[in-house]
Amino acid sequence: MKIRGFKHGGIDSMHRVSFEAKSIENAFLPLNALISLRNGPGLAEAEAVVKLGDQVLEGQLLARSTGANSSNMHSSIPGIVRRITQIKDAGSFDSLAIKISLDGSFSVLGKRPERYRWKALNKGDIGYLAQDKGVVRVSTGEPLYPALSKMSVKQEYTLILNVLELDPYSRVEESLFRLRTMDVLDGCAIAARISKPSRIIIAIDERYSAKTLSKIREAIDSCELDAKLQLFKHKIPQDHPRQLALALGINKDDIFIVEPSSLISLHEAIVSNKPHIEQYVFVGGGAIKHPAVLKARIGSPIGDLIEECGGFTSKPYTIVLNNPFTGRAAPDLDCAVGKTTRAILALTESEAKPAPERPCIRCSDCYEVCPAGLKPFLLHKLIQLGKIGEAKAIGLDRCISCGACAYICSSRIALVSIFDTAKKADKDRGQN
User: What residues does each domain of the chain span?
Assistant: First the structure.
């Protein structure tokens, strides 16, 4: 099978921290769940429908979607509404949040799930359930059904099931695809019913064994999904939408990428009538005693998940949420799991490799790894001089914030942060 990849830039070889995909355990229930009503920066906030002191059931609606950019939010535990307050999310955006204290009986946990024959449902029925249950695209936080519906108006488009996890740590999507293959593929078939893609591609790492590939093909055949298995180079950031489109030779606007965790949530909403109240989270890094993938309730403090994995082996230098290249540092251990939380990485000092920032030496390493073919050292110089217009003229807006340049920079310059700040400032100026 041909192995796809993009031609320029990227980081070719990264070590992989050893990890065995065992069964995914349920995390302990939190005594308090802090549920943010906004799923990501640039997305709208859901409108709270409960008030202070209300008793709520597990899976009960807490906040209603206000449009295509927000999703219904449900209580992940039964309990009492203790607080409704503004918080600063780990993604560095403000959001209203509802704090629930555990109290009362469970209506989802331990109950035999309902099973609906989704193939008898039409697109409208599936859409109602997906929106009612608050299913989102885990990689972005946007509601999944409206995003898929937008693609259905295209004459041709490619639905990509993205199983690629190329950084040294992350294992959620890979583990889900291995352990719940049929549910993921069933979720993919549901997504295809909504959006009617002209083709479906399952993007996986070239390092999969022939035996594993054979099992995946058998599963695809058994669920009667018209999908093609495609191997991609183990190269960061191959899993970025632009790089996947480049490798496949198609326009970025003509692909829709969805990950196994999103399809699991879609499958459970449609087949089991279950709201999106759980999130699959990988807890790892050199400072974690027993790395694991846990199924955690949304709103759980990340400290609880770390404790469940045996706690710290040593004091972590930093705790990063999601990707080590583009993720955000957790402000504290009370930071809550949200619908877009896929990894909690407690990194040691040797992993983080801290060093003081030094002047750029124009070594051009950043140019060599930039998948967009930009010259980050030159963009940095222009931004320093306040020449944002000239930086845009040579491609600032084409920066995909993949983190490759900052990773490779021997001077330890926070290039991605600098570029993102410049782009945001320019956008704000344009709006004013």
Answer: 3-10+115-272, 365-431
Topology (CATH) of 3-10+115-272: Rossmann fold (3.40.50)
Whether the full predicted model's pTM is greater than 0.70, yes or no, is yes
Q: Which of the residues in the chain have pLDDT under 50?
A: none
- ∠ CA 127-174-166 to the nearest 5 degrees? 110
What pLDDT does 20 receive?
76
Q: Pick from 44, 40, 47, 28: which is nearest to 98 by CA? A: 47
Please, what's the b/e burial string for 224-236 (b: 16 or more CB within 10 A of its CB; e: otherwise)?
ebebebbbbbbbb
Do 306 and 289 touch, CB atoms closer than 8 A? no
Find out whether 131 and 143 touch, Cβ atoms under 8 Å.
Answer: yes
Are residues 23 and 179 in contact, defined by beta-carbon separation less than 8 angstroms?
Answer: yes
Q: Which of 229, 208, 211 is nearest to 220 (CA)?
A: 229
Can you give the pLDDT at residue 22?
76
Per-residue model confidence (pLDDT) at position 108: 67
| Contact between residue 79 and residue 102 where contact means Cβ atoms under 8 Å apart | yes
DSSP 221-259: HHTT--EEEEEE-S-BTTTSHHHHHHHHTS-GGGEEEE-
Chain centroid to CA 415: how far? 22
pLDDT of 109 reads 63
Token digits of residue 301: 């403090």
pLDDT for residue 113: 62
Check if the beta carbon of residue 262 is closer than 8 Å to that of residue 144: yes
Q: What are phi and psi of 169, to 5 degrees?
A: -115, -50
CA distance 327 to 403: 10
CA distances for 17 relative to 174, 208, 249, angstroms: 14, 16, 32
- What would the pLDDT profile of 194-246 be if each residue is shown by its tens digit? 999 999 999 999 998 899 999 999 999 998 899 999 999 999 999 999 999 99
User: How high is the pLDDT of residue 211?
Assistant: 92
Pairing of strands 343-347, 318-321: antiparallel
189's enclosing H/E stretch is helix 181-195
Q: Are 283 and 294 in contact (CB under 8 A)?
A: yes
